[in-house]
Write a structure and sequence with these properties.
Layout lengths: L5 E4 L5 E7 L15 H4 L6 H11 L5 E7 L9 H11 L3 E6 L7 H4 L6 E5 L5 H8 L3 H14 L4 E7 L10 H8 L3 E6 L17 H17 L4 E4 L12 H4 L1 E5 L4 E3 L12 E4 L2 E4 L5 H5 L8 H6 L22 E4 L2
Parallel strand pairs: 2-3, 2-9, 3-4, 4-5, 5-6, 6-7, 7-8
Antiparallel strand pairs: 1-13, 8-13, 9-10, 10-11, 11-12
Helix pairs in contact: 2-3, 7-8
């Protein structure tokens, strides 16, 4: 069998991606949850605010995409309305990132043309997944995923790799094929939210990531499931690019904070905020200042906020250069 080609997905200046956190609440308590309610509050955006902010970030001249997030976005009673409104405004694509519980009868309130449904699952069976995400989650998520597939929805699945489930990643492609998933996203665990400081030792070493993740991605692609995962480590001589400088990604939270880089979400270093329904650039020291810096380690945000990710040699030079966290590699796409 021919080995599927791996390609790096370059940042697209003609594209705008809106990661819209409608609320921070969730029905689960996953061990690696990145939401920080101390920073982003416990409120839920109103229907009126949802419309206003969707209009605020829509850019007709660009391919504008919106990803609805939480917490658990399907807990928002007006999510179906927001999905339809985004399509009405002209967003090129709408995605809902869900834990699979699909509250408020979401599948009955939207059509397959309205949105892609992206399910989170962290194990190929309940024995692996449920200790991470909660009792009964595997059964509920897979049942609702199959229901969505049966109704004609395009679906993807997100697997957050950690020490808790790394060894089980190679078993995921067969499950995805059985479920009828259209696309697979492998995600690195971020040192933020519950994982900040990584006291539980969930983070992988570079060797563990490189030995396991690309092979699992190739296996899924070989079964006809395009797979996307973070590049994480730059190749020797490869140029570092920061999405904060060359791409348009906005991470919006219910309290009006808007980040350009997700790594800083545990801290009040957001470069933008929404006030009186207008997008305002903050003048305080913020993430924008860091994007301009060039350092041997690659990503300056990673160096500042997740320094433990980078090992050094005897000469104090970094053994690996970290790519922008939003730079992805794709297999079978």
């Amino acid at each position: 069998m021919k080995t599927p080609e791996v390609k790096t997905l370059a940042f697209r200046p003609e594209e705008r991606n809106i990661f819209f956190h409608l609320l921070t609440g969730c029905n689960l308590a996953c061990r690696h949850c990145y939401i920080n309610r101390e920073q982003h509050g416990t409120e839920m955006v109103s229907r009126e605010t949802m419309i206003t902010w969707l209009k605020l970030f829509y850019e007709p001249a660009k391919e504008s995409n919106v990803i609805f997030l939480g917490g658990e976005p399907t807990m928002h009673p007006d999510l179906a309305f927001g999905i339809k409104k985004a399509r009405e405004l002209g967003y090129a694509s709408v995605t809902v990132d869900t834990n699979g519980y699909l509250f408020h009868h979401l599948l009955e309130r939207i059509s397959p043309d309205d949105a892609v449904l992206s399910f989170s699952l962290d194990g190929p069976d309940a024995e692996v997944n449920d200790p991470i995400r909660g009792a009964g989650v595997f059964a509920t998520c897979t049942a609702n995923l199959q229901k969505a597939v049966g109704l004609g929805f395009k679906t993807s699945l997100i697997y957050t790799v950690s020490r808790l489930n790394l060894d089980h990643l190679p078993r995921m492609p067969e499950l995805l094929a059985d479920l009828g998933v259209n696309r697979f996203f492998i995600q690195v665990i971020g040192l933020r939210g519950k994982s900040a400081g990584d006291e539980a030792g969930l983070q992988l070493t570079p060797a563990e990531w490189l030995e396991t993740v690309p092979a699992a991605a190739a296996k899924a692609a070989g079964l006809g499931i395009p797979t996307i995962y973070p590049k994480v480590f730059l190749d020797k001589g490869e140029k570092f690019e920061c999405a904060g400088r060359v791409a348009e990604n906005f991470f919006i939270f219910p309290n009006g904070r808007v980040y350009r880089c997700p790594l800083g979400e545990d801290h009040p270093i957001h470069s933008l905020e929404i006030k009186d329904d207008r997008l305002i650039k903050r003048t305080e020291l913020n993430e924008d200042r860091f994007f301009e810096l060039q350092i041997p380690e690659g990503c300056v945000m990673n160096r500042l906020l997740q320094a433990g990710n980078i090992p050094y040699g005897p000469d104090s030079a970094p053994l690996h250069r970290i790519s922008c966290c939003l730079l992805k590699q794709a297999v079978g796409l």
